[in-house]
Amino acid sequence: MKMKKLNFSKIYSFRCGQKPNFRTENPQIGKQGYSRVVLCNEQDSFESDFRNSYADNSVRSTKYTVANFLPKSLFEQFRRVANFYFLVTGILAFTKLAPYTAVSAILPLCIITGATMVKEGVEDWRRKKQDIEVNNRRVIFHKGDGSFEYTEWKNLKVGNIVKVKKDEFFPADLLLLSSSYDDAVCYVETMNLDGETNLKLKQGLEVTSSLNEDFKFRDFKAAVKCEDPNANLYSFVGSMEFDGQKFPLSPQQLLLRDSKLRNTDYVYGAVIFTGHDTKVIQNATDPPSKRSKIEKKMDKIIYFLFCVLFLIAFVGSILFGIVTKRDLHNGVMKRWYLRPDDSTIFFDPERVAAASAFHFLTALMLYNFFIPISLYFSIELVKVLQCIFINQDINMYYEELDKPALARTSNLNEELGQIDTILSDKTGTLTCNSMEFIKCSVAGVAYGRGVTEVEQAIGNISNNSPMIHQQVNRSEPESDDIREARDRKESVKGFNFMDERIMNGNWVNEPCADVIQKFFRLLSVCHTAIPEVDEGTGKVSYEAESPDEAAFVIAAREVGFKFYKRTQNSLSMKELDPVSGDEVNRTFKILNVLEFNSSRKRMSVIVKDEEGRILLLCKGADSVMFERLAKDGREFEAKTLEHMNEYADAGLRTLILAYRELDEEEYNEFDNKFSEVKNSVTIDRESLIEEVSDKIERNLILLGATAVEDKLQNGVTKNFSKENVSVGSRLEISTNYIVLLGS
């Protein structure tokens, strides 16, 4: 169940515990920065003050507490203009100015505000029950001597070793130690954190990958030094000391609370951040006091009614003063029955100004029905009924995930019908985020048949435009043989490519067969995907960090470059030997992985092949790749750029593929610097890694470009009347998606 999230002040230094002399050995502990220290599996040896300095693992998402419910809820009620007005008139009802009894003014106000406060309390109690359910979830933790037992989430402490099973949520931010896979990999679903549905690959350190059984933790000891609690979901800087050696840590080893373990039987992890120190809670905000547009607009209407009410009371008090002054004529009261005396000035002709002022206040109370006291309560009642209807609305039921609509709060129901602008990303929201490899350019030759969804839309809306026809016709039409082959071939998710020139091993007959081999070999090697073999059918599927990466590996497999095995240090594949015509095994030793991020816009792996050559394989955006090409590596640049523009016009996502061969001395120099910065625990570690990586990713040789299609979600085009796009990819791609939306 997804929690409501809170925002708490950042705490810059906590400590899981330490040996008696740890502070003197590490004087930086307690200072702002990268100073958190965790002694894993040494809970009993921690000094009590250090254990208590950490946040516990319980969370609270409620708006109120027992102590602050009454004052805070009363404030919420009386910050409403009408309620505050009735409160003032209720207080004045205890004076002689009131034209009615105090009970008749106070009792309705108490009933109305009390009922609304009860509604607020019930909704907050539901949130409290959710917190109790989350805090009392059970997880397996190491109690010592290699034995594990169940405990509640709220009892976990920093440094505990826990075992999380398949389809369970992580109870805290954990350092991945090992998993049911030999290579300490696992798959994580982070939909509750960032809305992404594709699984993310995490991998523990090789040195702890063998800790995959309970008894192996009997004597396990490790010290982790890392960054302090912060809200960055995609950052984690630290190092782990184990067996006398120091190993760098990265986000690849961090399992975040509120994410779920998928496609992995179990993992072991060490608790790094707990409770309010976890990244998901650090990212959250305090439960706000939400007020809808209608309620705010109603306040303006009430202000207008107040003006009218004040005008009526003011005019009435002036007329009252005039009439009262005329009551006294030649010392005789015309309205003798009013009998004013020294104890009252309400109708005293000799004190007209004061009598008029009192009449003004009396009129404000007398005409208070002008603003109905049940106004807010009626709206609150309607909102509660709306919540009931929303929860039971079959049209809001998502059958695929068996999820009905759930209204957790009733404050903003009416906002659902007032939305006129949606700020959204394109990939995965407007589109399916299910990439299909459809075309490619290799050695300056375009491969791949067929017309994309965008090209079809452009053709449909501009049948009489020669320019549009020319654009659509750039893609060669499928021949009858190709169409029949496509119909016979079993559909493969992620692969919508067909070209007889390179399929079924025909690539060996192409003029640039060696470049084609390097191109698809790069697709088969330059990634972080993990192969999974179905024991029943023997078919290989892939779990990748992104749909793009999965599509590339699948495309390489379908062409004949079959990646089938990965360890922490090696990768194995099968490919067609162009000389012998036989399928041969290739094994590459993985030396380094230079990971993709939004600033680098590229990913590289450095591998050593069976001949001992050290190769840097790189794929990335054209905006950063072309400038990294060597002078003698630009042979196909002009044709590749031309093809990429055509692919972009067709709405396809493109990447450039390039490589270079490294000599031993150059690689060793790079590896020493790379290891040094990866082991550092400083605020600028990521920038240092990028700087070192940038120096080696130069003088590349261009191989070609890929093109994948990401189709729109069903029904998207029917729900937009106007689109404004902030371009994050190539301008042509975003422009053509706008055309597709408008079609």
From TrEMBL:
GO terms for biological process: phospholipid translocation. Keywords: ATP-binding, Magnesium, Membrane, Metal-binding, Nucleotide-binding, Translocase, Transmembrane, Transmembrane helix. Mg(2+) binds at D425, T427. ATP binds at D425, K426, T427, E549, F596, K619, R653. It is an enzyme of class 7 (translocase). One of its GO terms (cellular component) is plasma membrane. Its EC number is 7.6.2.1. It is found in: Membrane. The keyword Nucleus does not apply. It catalyses: ATP + H2O + phospholipidSide 1 = ADP + phosphate + phospholipidSide 2. Residues 47-105 form the P-type ATPase N-terminal domain. Pfam families: Cation_ATPase (PF13246), PhoLip_ATPase_N (PF16209). The chain crosses the membrane at residues 78-94, 301-323, 357-379. Involved in transport of phospholipids. This is Phospholipid-transporting ATPase. It comes from Pisum sativum.
